[in-house]
Amino acid sequence: MERERIKTDLKLGKRIYESVPRQFRPGWGTSLLMTFETGIKNIPTEIIELYNIVDDEIRWKESHGQFGKIRQFLLSHTNFQPQTYLFLAEKVAKITYNLSGQPAPFDSDSGYYIPSLAIQTADYFNDQQITAEIERILTLHYNTDTNVVGKRQKNDDQE
Predict the structure, then answer these.
(1) pLDDT higher than 90, residue 149
(2) Which long-range CB contacts under 8 A does 100-103 form with residues at least 24 apart?
(3) CA distances from 119 to 43, 84, 99, 132, 135 (A)
(4) What percent of the chain has pLDDT over 90?
(5) What's 17's DSSP letter?
(6) If we measure between CA atoms, which residue out of 50, 39, 33, 54 comes closest to residue 134?
(7) What angle, 0 to 180 degrees and rounded to 10, lies between the N-to-C axes of helices 45-54 and 83-98?
(8) Contact partners, residue 66, CB within 8 Å, separation at least 6
(9) In whole angstroms, what is the distance from residue 101 CA to residue 143 CA?
(10) How far apart, in whole angstroms, are the C-alpha atoms of residue 57 and residue 36?
(11) Among 15, 63, 99, 101, which residue's beta carbon has the most beta carbons within 10 A?
(12) 149, 124, 148: which is closest to 134 by C-alpha?
């Protein structure tokens, strides 16, 4: 996996994100978040609450408000490390809300940043097990050799 490229190439982030079936995207996002729990002493309550929302599709519409809670935590805990973990949680809340079908969705490209933020967060921990698990989750549905999304890579790279 091209870890450095994932951190900077939004088109690759888009391809990875779009390779995940829509109904699995919120759970895919929380799986990424949960991978970092071994390295974070106190998981913010706002993120635990997001897990509960993602677990129940009927509650996905609540993730808009949960995004606000996560943002407020970020703003009031400026020393929290790694901040990329909180940014990742915000993106997971955004994609979950967008998939709820409710009005006034977040930016449609919110999910494209998830792979980059996950890799950046893994780099913060400098732990081979965490890094390997993040790479495994990111590529569950993405394969540059066989994935339909991956086959479009040549066209996207030529733009």
Answers:
(1) no
(2) 100/60, 100/61, 100/63, 102/61, 102/64
(3) 19, 9, 24, 10, 8
(4) 84
(5) H
(6) 33
(7) 30
(8) 46, 49, 50, 53, 93
(9) 28
(10) 23
(11) 63
(12) 124
The domain spans of the chain are 3-151
Q: Which pair of structure tokens corresponds to residue 135?
A: 């790479």
More confident residue, 154 or 92: 92
Q: What's the whole-model pTM score?
A: 0.89
Contact 64, 19 (CB under 8 A): no
**Lookup result for tokens 């890799």:** 119
Instruction: Compute and round to an integer the Cα radius of gyration of the chain.
Output: 15
Amino acid at the residue 56: D
Six-digit token string for 95: 């994609």
